[in-house]
């Protein structure tokens, strides 16, 4: 992905400019999905014809990460779960299926790939990323904080224990002499991979996790009969396309507060999920957080009042929010009391929300 930031620390400053330039009027509304529980075994073979998958609905087709435009090639996902695994199947339309990266934990997005982002507790800290290409080569990593924070820690050595994944090519891999239909990726991610302690009960029964999916797709050239990422006249790689389930509004997957909501239902048959009102309160805090960061970039000091960050009345479903900003030696806090639950939410200068 363009501005992927795994290794490009020099770009972090630019990310802060891009990521915080979004106004309140452009607030992203995350997508939602109800994942039903399956008791039918699933064979991870890259084929979505298992009987269990018939219980799951396809997501809406993926959109451009920044502007929500429908991309050239279709991508869609199904999700299921049981007491052991989170199951995902992704179906991608692609007339030229190619991949050449075979070493695990290499930078997989240098090939066309499919990516999974998961934040179990919805605090934007300590989240997980998984990338897989058409050769079924995986790159899994753990991030302590989003890349917008300069002191984030990326654990590239972290692997998902027990991960199962398989790819089925609808056509022929790495063959430029024909036109393919695409490829299907099926995976089972053990809940145990997301345990924070030995006794952690982390199977999300009738709970939501923040999740998003991204598909990276490059323009290609043929060099000596082999696929390669296409370059411009100056020899630089052309930017890739980023197609996602829940659009971000910026070319950056690492704003977890904008990811979709996956609700893991234990109900027999269809179930409904509505984003809790307190989540919308958190969205407004993140708008103020971005505005505060932008204010600092312009003025080299933190704003001392909410009025310096927004001229608009902040409301949710006709309920007025009254946030308060407090500056301190190491940054700032912005606090607001939810009119829906009477819980107080505080966002810190590092982007973490604390609930009191």
From TrEMBL:
Name of the protein this chain belongs to: Carbohydrate family 9 binding domain-like
Top-level taxon: Bacteria
One annotated GO molecular function: carbohydrate binding
CDD domains per UniProt: CBM9_like_3
Residue intervals of the Carbohydrate-binding domain: 44-197
Organism per entry: Flavobacterium chilense
A biological-process GO annotation: carbohydrate catabolic process
């Amino acid at each position: 992905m363009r501005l992927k930031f795994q290794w490009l620390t020099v770009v972090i400053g630019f990310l802060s400019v891009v990521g915080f330039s979004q106004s309140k009027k452009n607030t992203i509304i995350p997508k939602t999905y109800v994942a039903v529980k399956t008791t039918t075994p699933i064979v991870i073979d890259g084929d979505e014809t298992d009987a269990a998958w018939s219980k799951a609905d396809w997501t809406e087709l993926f959109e451009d990460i920044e502007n929500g435009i429908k991309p050239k090639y279709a991508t869609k996902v199904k999700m299921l779960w049981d007491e052991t695994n989170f199951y995902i199947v992704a179906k991608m339309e692609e007339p030229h299926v190619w991949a050449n990266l075979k070493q695990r934990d290499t930078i997989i997005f240098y090939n066309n790939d499919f990516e999974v982002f998961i934040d179990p507790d919805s605090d934007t800290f300590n989240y997980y990323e998984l990338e897989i290409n058409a050769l079924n080569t995986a790159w899994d990593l753990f991030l302590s904080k989003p890349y917008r924070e300069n002191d984030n820690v990326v654990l590239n050595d972290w692997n998902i224990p027990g991960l199962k994944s398989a790819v089925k090519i609808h056509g022929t891999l790495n063959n430029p002499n024909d036109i393919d239909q695409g490829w299907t990726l099926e995976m089972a991610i053990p809940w145990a991979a997301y345990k924070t302690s030995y006794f952690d009960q982390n199977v999300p029964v009738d709970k939501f996790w923040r999740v998003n999916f991204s598909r990276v797709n490059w323009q290609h050239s043929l060099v000596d009969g082999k696929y390669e990422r296409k370059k411009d006249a100056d020899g630089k790689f052309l930017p890739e396309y980023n197609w996602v389930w829940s659009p971000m509004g910026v070319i950056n997957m690492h704003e977890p507060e904008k990811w979709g909501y996956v609700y893991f239902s234990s109900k027999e048959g269809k179930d409904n999920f509505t984003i809790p009102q307190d989540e919308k309160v958190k969205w407004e805090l993140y708008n103020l957080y971005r505005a505060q960061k932008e204010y600092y970039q312009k003025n080299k000091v933190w704003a001392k009042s909410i009025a310096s960050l927004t001229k608009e009345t902040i409301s949710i479903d006709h309920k007025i929010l009254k946030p308060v900003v407090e500056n301190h030696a190491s940054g700032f806090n912005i606090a607001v009391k939810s009119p829906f639950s009477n819980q107080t939410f505080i966002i810190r200068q590092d982007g973490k929300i604390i609930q009191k």
